[in-house]
Structures are given as C-alpha cells and as structure tokens.
Description:
Elements: H1 5-25, H2 27-32, H3 38-51, H4 79-93, H5 95-125, H6 130-140, H7 142-148, H8 156-169, H9 175-192, H10 197-213, H11 218-237, H12 255-274, H13 279-300, H14 314-319, H15 335-355, H16 361-383, H17 388-412, H18 416-430, H19 432-440, H20 449-461, H21 464-468, E1 477-479, H22 485-491, E2 495-496, H23 505-516, H24 519-528, E3 533-536, H25 541-549, H26 554-559, E4 567-573, E5 577-582
Helix pairs in contact: 1-5, 1-6, 3-4, 3-22, 4-5, 5-6, 5-7, 5-8, 5-17, 6-17, 8-9, 8-17, 9-11, 10-11, 10-13, 10-16, 11-12, 12-13, 15-16, 15-17, 15-19, 16-17, 17-18, 23-24
Amino acid sequence: MKCIGRRGYVILAIWLALSAALISTGWTNIGVRAGWDPDDQLRLVQLRDFLNGQSWFDTRQYRMNPPDGAPMHWSRLIELPLAAIISLLAPMFGQAVAETVASTALPLMLFGVIIMLLARTASRVGENGADIAAAIIAALSVPLIMQLRPMRIDHHGWQITMAVLALASLFHGNARKAGLVLGAALAIWLHISLEGAPMSAAFFLFLGWQWLTKPVEATRLFWTIGGFAVLSLALFLGTQTLGLGATIYCDTVSPPHIIAILAAATIMLSGLYIGPQSKLARALVIATAGGAAASVLLLRAPGCLHGAFSTLDPLVRDYWYVNVKEGMPVWHQDLRTAAFLMAGPIAGLISFIILARKMDETNRSKLWVASFFSIYAFVLSLFVFRTISVAAAYGIVPVSALVSHLFAQYRQSGLPKQRILYVVAMLFLLVPGSVVNAVLNISPAPQSAEDVRSSTRLLSCESANSVATLSRLPRGQFLVPFDMGPMVLAQTRHSVLASSHHRNEKAMHDHIEIFRSQPDVAKRLMHARGIDYLALCPDEEELDLYARKNPDGFWGQIAKRNVPDWLEALPVKGKGIMVWRVR
C-alpha cells in the first residue's frame, strides 16, 4: 500500500465519494435494474441471453423481429466482465441481485480507472497538485457522469476508458510498453465501436508526424502499429465465425477494415524496421501505407466511405435517423444543452491558450500533446455530438494544469483581491458547466406547463415498473414505439417488432409503415408480421411525428380517437400504457 502514496489516497477518496453519491442519486434505477436508455436495457437483455446459452458468436436478438430475430452490431467483449460478476454472485445471492451489483459496480470501476489515468496524465503536464485537480474535475464532469453512472452498462464508458488510456500512454517513458498499450487501447476501442476511428486516426497521425520529424520516435510507432494490428485481427477472428469471409458491415470492424489494417501495418512495420534516414523516404512510407488502406476500403467497401448509415433504408432515415440528435452536429442540438456539455472542452482550449505562454519548453511540449488531442476531440464533437464525452475527458488535462498553476500563484500572492480572483477562476475551471448553466438560467427558456407534464407522464409511463405490468398479458408480439421496445424485452417475456437499432432496418421500415399508413394497410402489415398487441405511451415524440406527417394514417386516426374496429381496447396498464389486442 505504500506505493499508493498520500496523493493516491486522496484520489481514491474522491472516487469513493463520487461512487457513493452516484449510487445514492441513482438508487431508483438501480433498484429496478432499468438502465438509463434503450441501449442499456437491450444490453441487459443480450447479456441474459448470453448467460442462458446463446452462442458467443451469435449476437442476434431473437425476441425482436421474430422469428428471424434482429441482427446486432454489438461486441460480446464488454459483456465478459458483467457476465463474470453475475456468474460469481448469482449462485449465492440470486440473478436479480447479481445483475444489480454487476451493473452498479462495473461503470463505477471504469470511472475510477479514468480518474486515475487522467490524474496521472495531468501530473506529467501540470505543476504540483494537477493530479488532484484532474480527479476533482473528472468527478464533477457531467458528460463523464452521464456515461459512467451505475446501470450505464452500454459501450460508451468503455470507449471513454480506452480513449483516456490511449492518451495516458503517450506520457509513458518506455516507448515499447507504451506503444503496445496504445495499440491495444485503439484496437479495443475500434472493436467496441467504429466511432473511435476518427480519434484512432488522430493518434496514428500524431505518431507518424513524430517519426517523420524525429526518427528516434520509431520505436513507439512500431510497437503501437504492431500491437494494434495483431489485437485487431485477434478480436475480429475471435468474434466472427466466418473470419475474413464474414458479411461486410459499415458499422463495425469487417473484413475490408481488417485487410486495410494489415496492409497498412505491413508497409509501416517494414519501413520502421528499415529505418530510412531521409525525411522524404519516411514520408513516402507513410503515404504508401495510408494509400494502401484507403485503396482496400475503396475497392472492397466503397459504401463505407460515406459513413455507417449511408445505406440505411430511406424511410427509416427520414423518420428515425435524422431525429437521433446525439448523432447529429452541434447545430442540431438544443443550444442550452450543447453549451452546458461543451463548457468543459472549451475550458480546456482556454487553458491551453493561457498556459502555452507561461510554461517552460519541456512542459510546454507536453501541454501541446495533450491539447492537440483535446482540440481534435472538441472539433470532432461539433460534427458528431455524442463524442462530447471523450472531448470532455481530454479537456480535463489542460484545465487541471491551469488550476495547479493558479493555485501556485494563489499561494504566492499576498494581495486579498488577487487571491479572490484566483479562487473565482479556479472554481470556474473546476465546474465550468455549472457556471454556464447558472448563467443560462438567468433567463430560462420558456417551457409550457403542458410540455413539463408531458415529459413527466412519459417518464412515469415508460418506467420499468410500469412496463413490467405488461407481463400479465398472454405472451405475444408487441408493436411499441422504438424507444419502448428494449424495456419491454427487459421487463417481460414478450417480443417486439423493432427498436431504435439500425441493423433491424426491414422491421423498422414496417414499424414506421404501420404507424403512418392508412388503417387497412396497417392491418395487413400487422397480420403479416404476427403482431398480437399494440401498446404505447401517448406522449412519445415518435407518435407526435407520425401524427404531424401523416394525420390520416393509422396513428393519426387513433390520436383523433378514431380507433379501427379490429383493435380491441384493453385496460390501461402501469402508469398510463394504452394497450390494444389485434383481433
């Protein structure tokens, strides 16, 4: 325990206090194992299926779009630690308790790793105390809390962990070990989600530039590429039954991606091993490797160059995808929410600008490294807003460095007014989002009382306890709004047609077609799909969209209380769930 040190105990105490606070504030969700969004709920369903014997290689969800099931693009990898905890505890405490403990402990453990890594990185960049500042800022960061609180068991927490581990590796002195860690972090990140591709490209761009300008940096790049290529191949072959003959998908690592990685790695490793002294020769090696990877993707998967959703069904795109705001650019977001969540990354940019002129040359070079990735992640979040959590995590390093600098100035200053200014500045940097939120709340956005009541009713109606009451109905297939589907699967034994998971696009297409079509067309589609029940919470935004765009359609008519006679109304379930049986 002596190796932890006093500062380590302080960071540990910060994490323990944070964990206690998050468990306390999230106790309602923890008690019903509800998760925080449809992805958490469906991940729990997938995990249960895996523990009940579904193949490691088969991630299809068979209670969605029966009898074929819905193909899923999720990796089993992040289910392993959850499965291990549940398997260990279930024989002693039961399945429910084991699921609760696993879904509570794992996100908090990841949060602890992130706090430790950020603190260590900050200590390499900033002055004395930067590590404690980083731990405090991370513990108060809303973008991180949103993705790492108890019951948040989807892949976002793992993505942030791998992102922070990748950044931390750049400040490790042993180039070989650091390169292997970086390569592994990027491989796991990409295996979990291809959303990590732009940031992975940034790391390779940075290391490539380092080698181009400083040949001595070859070792780190060599082991990074080697570790990345080997582990990427191992993860792919370890999760795909058909290996390089598997189906090509644009939303996950597929055969073309693996071939592109191996082609680029072969060229780069050969060039690094030879070690050309000419800068032009090194540039040629880098360009050839990049060109080889791009050529493979262009020839084998040209559609993927336009993004993971480029081939999405047009109807699904128009009614669903364009309304998933978290995947859209910042200008599609609510201004107040965007300003609140982006306050941290912006504070990181400001910190870099201030510190760049105050640090000595050695520390300035480290600041440049941390700030490059912070700024890059921030720019990326402007175009894909859900990446804001990684930008917030990276922004903590320059911010904590500035806090430690201001704290040193505060201790040296003897002027009360100056000391007060230092305290105010440090408080702003510790919780920039809260300051921005307070300023925005001076003139709160107008919100009607009906909007508030509608949101409250929806939360209550779609809650775990409310949806669980559907279990009293004879088992069957439900047509429910997209975001309600995973909760039905998690809380009952029923099946559903579709949810907001894009690989199931044919079922999503029919789901949308039913709600927007004329009632007689909807009836034919529901019978063809074997739908037994229609169940919904009336305040769903999805239903409002159908009513606005297709007022004479199936849901548009029901919203006007023109219910077709082939629907038999059943008693309201839970906290306002309207249910009909299809005759």
